């Protein structure tokens, strides 16, 4: 998946630019508005540019080279990450449980001139994805697993394991953790610590992060954590000089023999498919 041993892959393609005069751009804006989104919002029309400045550098730090690879983006939302992966030469297949999001993602790829490099599918139940086993070299789960219903998470992770080829990689990033004092997406304080029974009392679902222990259980026996020493490099690549807290987290994680990405408000893990997977394997996925 990466460059030559001891070398980090460098990505120097031109940044994809949306053709704002195109019919595809007009369709993108119309579809976004129909779905209740503002096209000019950073997390809608500006999302691909954001991910070019962030996800691209993250891939580089973890030595993941999309060029010539079959890549599944699980939970593509408006297609921002798919734009980046396609621009870097990946053969992208993107799925989302929202028909609206899938339609917006297709238009997003078209307005960037990358629709030939990516296929976007609406899949209502991602516990059973419509692809043969071992179809992909890489899976990207960017800011999505926290939206999977807790009772469905294990089945979803089993499906992603099935779809990866032997030695394939899965990058989990931007995944809000339920251990964070402030929920990453809603920015609400302490909501992660409220039991789900509170939702019934309020008559609405509160956004929470994913439980790291449940995620670890679903990964165990299926994936092996790799690239632990690159987490701090990834922080430097994306955010500049790592803070004292980041360096401390990295040291503590090294002492514990687990990935430092478990401790962050956004969980970040690079994983490799374990060929011999089963509930009795007894190996951790830290």
From TrEMBL:
Residues annotated as domain Methyltransferase type: 72-172
Keywords in alphabetical order: Methyltransferase, Transferase
GO molecular function, one term: S-adenosylmethionine-dependent methyltransferase activity
GO biological process, alphabetically ordered: methylation
Matching Gene3D superfamilies: Vaccinia Virus protein VP39 (3.40.50.150)
Highest taxon of the lineage: Bacteria
Pfam families to which the protein is assigned, alphabetical: Methyltransf_11 (PF08241)
This protein's name: SAM-dependent methyltransferase
């Amino acid at each position: 998946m990466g460059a030559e041993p001891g070398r980090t892959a460098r990505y120097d393609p031109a940044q994809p630019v949306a053709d704002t005069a195109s019919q595809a751009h007009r369709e993108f804006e119309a579809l976004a508005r129909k779905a209740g989104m503002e096209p000019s919002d950073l997390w809608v029309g500006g999302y691909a540019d954001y991910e070019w400045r962030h996800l691209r550098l993250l891939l580089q730090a973890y030595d993941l080279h999309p060029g010539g690879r079959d890549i599944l983006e699980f939970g593509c939302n408006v297609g921002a990450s798919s734009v980046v992966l396609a621009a870097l030469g990946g053969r992208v297949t993107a799925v989302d449980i929202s028909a609206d999001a899938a339609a917006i993602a297709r238009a997003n790829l078209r307005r960037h001139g990358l629709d030939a490099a990516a296929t976007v599918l609406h899949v209502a139940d991602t516990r059973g994805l419509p692809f043969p086993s071992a179809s992909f070299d890489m899976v990207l789960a960017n800011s999505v697993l926290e939206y999977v219903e807790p009772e469905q998470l294990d089945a979803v992770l089993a499906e992603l394991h099935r779809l990866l080829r032997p030695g394939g990689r899965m990058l989990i990033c931007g995944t809000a953790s339920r251990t964070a004092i402030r929920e990453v997406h809603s920015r609400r304080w302490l909501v992660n610590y409220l039991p789900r029974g509170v939702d019934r009392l309020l008559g609405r679902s509160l956004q929470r992060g994913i439980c790291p222990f449940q995620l670890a259980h679903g990964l165990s026996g299926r994936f092996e954590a790799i690239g632990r020493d690159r987490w701090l490099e990834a922080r430097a690549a994306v955010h500049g000089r790592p803070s004292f807290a980041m360096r401390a987290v990295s040291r503590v994680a090294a002492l514990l023999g687990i990935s430092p990405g478990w401790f962050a408000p956004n969980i970040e893990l690079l994983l490799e498919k374990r060929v011999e997977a089963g509930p009795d394997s007894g190996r951790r996925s830290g």
